[in-house]
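Task: encode each sequence below as structure tokens.

Item 1
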Amino acid sequence: HMKDGCLYEDPALVHFVVEHFPEYVAQQVGTIHLPYQYIISLGLKNISEWSALTTYLPETNKDAYLLVSPDGVLRENANSGKLLGIIEIKCCSPFHHVPNEDGTLRWVDNMETRQWHKKEDIPFVYLIQMSLQVISCLHRFTDMNDESIVWFIRWTPNGFSEFRSAFKHLVPVGIIASIMYFRLKTRLTLENLPMTYDKDDKFLHTLLIKYFHQAINSFIYDYV
């Protein structure tokens, strides 16, 4: 699975730009340091239930952070052009394994048999990842804003599915997912695995699912 990603990410990025934006430049950005305090600073503006949600904020070190790596950003030109948004690339299959009846996992040898095409099939973990990438770019780049675009590409050598949405639709998902992560992180030890949600976690999970579906529904789809 990772071999496919390493092999195809660069040609996918080139394919995307040549097909749609030959006058623009796609750039890789590496890893972005994303402070947790910045993430929750966006809550009041982006989540209508924020006043109720603040009750569930975990106690964290003021320097708590995440490390987030978008696959690339799209710029109007190579020098000082405006940043238009981010690009995230995935291969045709969402997972490299499938469950057996006994709970173990088996490897998928041919990922072409597990292709997906509809926005409703975007894997949950991919949307969480993109939501955090969106927030990291709002933090890192001053010329990105709520109307900047995330381009999500499901790529194969035969063609690609492109999904796009505005940052503002994904931000709430990233905020709630981060809160849940830091809540669970304070309880995580080897002794209490597997973990289960408490009633407060369940409230957050309900909100997360609500905003997840709103984000999924916001995507526009094209096949190239």
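Item 2
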Amino acid sequence: DPSYIDADGVLTDPEPWVGIAHATLSLPAATVTWTSTNDGQTGDFSQYMDLVVVVYCKTDGAGAYEYCKLYVNNRTGANDYFYQHLTGDGTTVSAYADDTSNLGGFWYPPGTGGSHEANAFGACVYHMLDVNSGKYKSGTHMAGSYGATNDQVEHHTWMTYTQAPVTEIDLNAGGSSFVAGSTFSLFGVLPRMVTA
């Protein structure tokens, strides 16, 4: 049984976040994938309201910054996502949007180029909302990353045009690979089912 259900089948954990999966890379990898276990256990996405992904990564791409893209249910087509994206580096702010995107939920972790420190990693927290509803799936994320000339923060909201429940999450390095030491954690957010 999941840790929040006791031997008698009673829900005991008042905390709504449940750790589902974690990966720390020992070798570079282009993609990290999680799929629902569909077995009623901790890894079964169908029991959660929301899913949260925490990423700490760098890529081996040659640019100052590269991509980290989150895809839902292996949806990577040219018109699969709509997004609004806001960035700021302490000097300038930029905003842009696209309703015909194949970038998924994206942000810009450091690559190997640019003027940042060699060991600079970026960090991001994704929050995917109402993942088992019949609505189009949507999410938001905040990231600390690297821009064209400076470190920057990013706020990104996105929606993908599918009403299907979320059963797969892919984190993709956009043509490069996440370096060793990059970490990825997946949490499920339960509806509040016990008295606090």
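Check on item 2: The radius of gyration is 17 Å. The mean pLDDT is 90.
End of task.
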